[in-house]
Amino acid sequence: MSADFEAVQAWIDDDPDPTTAAELVALLAQAQAGNAEADDELADRFSGTLEFGTAGLRGAMGGGPNRMNRAVVIRAAAGLTAWLNEKLGTFTVVIGCDARHGSAQFALDTAAVVTAAGGRALVLPAAQPTPVLAYAVRHLAADAGVMVTASHNPPQDNGYKVYLGGNAVGAEARGVQIVPPYDSQIAAKIAEVRSVAEVPMAESGWEQLGDEIRQSYLDRVVSLVPYGRASQLRIVLTSIHGVGGETMKTALERAGFRDVHVVREQFQPDPEFPTVSFPNPEEPGALDLSLALARKVGADLVIANDPDADRCAAAIPTANGWVQLTGDQVGWLLGDQAGALAAYTGKGVLACSIVSSRMLASIAASHGLEHEYTLTGFKWISRVPGLVFGYEEALGYCVDPQYVRDKDGISAGVRLALLASQLDDQGDTLGDLLDRLESRHGAHATNPLTIRVTDLSRISSVMAALRVAPPEALAGSPVVEFADLSDGWKKLPPTDGLYFLTAAGDRVVVRPSGTEPKLKCYLESISKAGNLAASRAAAKARVEAVRTDLASIIDAIG
């Protein structure tokens, strides 16, 4: 496909950023001279507009409508402010950003658009964790919040998250990321922006906030640890070159955890993420430096945040060496902790995404509490009425929904340290608690299957084929329940996903990734086959067999 040279030139003429404009000028000259590679690159950059949805915007940096750049951000800010203006008349937007390339400029551009539109723009200091912005939306009663971040995406990416609050939404949704129909309504306003040059932008007039919001957030996080309950736990901490390091370390120390060792090579924000191949604590190798330091200092716990600190990973020492806990295992631990606290009042709901482990439902029942499944994403989990704890298996945990209605890797890390400390006081460990939970509720084994693609059409073709001809059996057990989640299911809103349950209790959920070019399959098997070791072995064998069968089925689709 060849690029539309006239459309490219029109974008260049309207581009407010000399850097991306020059980048496009060079590509255009090469393409017009017959360079096929430059032509293909331009065709991709102008294949459409970076789509605004419930995750906001996210994509690679560069010039053109299908990239993250100042022109795209200014259009998004103009669409958001137009929507707020139409809905409210007067409005307040709080704006934050991480330390990625372009983030600070994107935040200032947003403030300039909001101010020129007659809104009140409150700008957090640069390089702040996402949970601080989520806290600020509720704390300041802002009508919207914008966080410029690409979370744990590769270094070349950036993104734009939108939260609503104040008078823009009802009480249950204040401080939560947008869901339908707000995403499409805002997207429609963005589409109405004909030219970036026509978007009014103030040169001043927004309010630059100081460190008071972060300090207020820290006060709240520290309050989650009862005074004097922090033992002499030795903790290793990494922020993986993100913006959470100083805030996480301060939170732990103010809560009473003074024996904290940071991974110096990864402590300061660095948008290049030089020590990891992919800045996601779930990725193999991401915690190598942390584990090496933990072994060196004889640590009791490793806590890792992703680059914008809304996720939390953990590793613990075992008889067989250091082991990184899965996202589900951390969810069980924090869920049991929250359940025990809520059980005193007999009120509260534990919630998790439909792709997360079924263990949380058993934990909730054991504490006499309710449990709910939601669609994937904290924009859904955070909206559950009566929520006291929510999680998703991708390392996201909401432990304090009254104040932060989003995943929060900092408060989750502090609460996990508290739990480890309390167990340590009893001569116990997080590993021992996990053993007890699985002995009581059954061994739960997960084994995700991820299909990365270069051609996005393969995802839709696989989904279509599975809808038409779902597997009749997996791992030798008949599929007894199949649901097309696009039709809605068990009170869940429609979503692009498929659900399978076998007679043996194996569960499979298949869905396209919302942020990356891949198909994600979430598999779980449960076993109570005798003692814990036997149960774990049986569950692991079953889920591996399910994975093998499902991979073969998808491969056969082509």
Question: Can you tell me about this structure?
Answer:
This protein is an alpha/beta fold. The chain has three domains: 48-212, Alpha-D-Glucose-1,6-Bisphosphate, Chain A, domain 3 (3-Layer(aba) Sandwich); 231-441, Alpha-D-Glucose-1,6-Bisphosphate, subunit A, domain 3 (Alpha-D-Glucose-1,6-Bisphosphate, Chain A, domain 3); 443-557, Alpha-D-phosphohexomutase, C-terminal domain (TATA-Binding Protein, 2-Layer Sandwich). Helices cover 38% and strands 20% of the residues. The strands form four sheets. Strands 1, 2, 3, 4, 5, 6 and 7 form a seven-stranded mixed beta sheet that branches. Strands 17, 18, 19, 20, 21, 22 and 23 form a seven-stranded antiparallel beta sheet that branches. Helix 9 (245-254) links the parallel strand 8 (235-238) and strand 9. Helix 2 crosses helix 3 (36-45), helix 8 crosses helix 9 (245-254) and helix 11 (327-342) packs across helix 14. The model has no long low-confidence stretch (mean pLDDT 96).
How many structural domains are formed by the residues? 3
Cα(first) to Cα(last) distance is 24 Å
Helix content: 25-40%
Tell me which CATH architecture of the largest domain applies here. 3-Layer(aba) Sandwich
CA-based shape? globular
Number of continuous helical runs: 17
What is the highest CATH level, the class of the largest domain? Alpha Beta
Mean pLDDT: 96
Throw out a few tags for this protein.
558 residues, alpha/beta, Alpha-D-Glucose-1,6-Bisphosphate, Chain A, domain 3, TATA-Binding Protein, 7-stranded antiparallel β-sheet, 17 helices
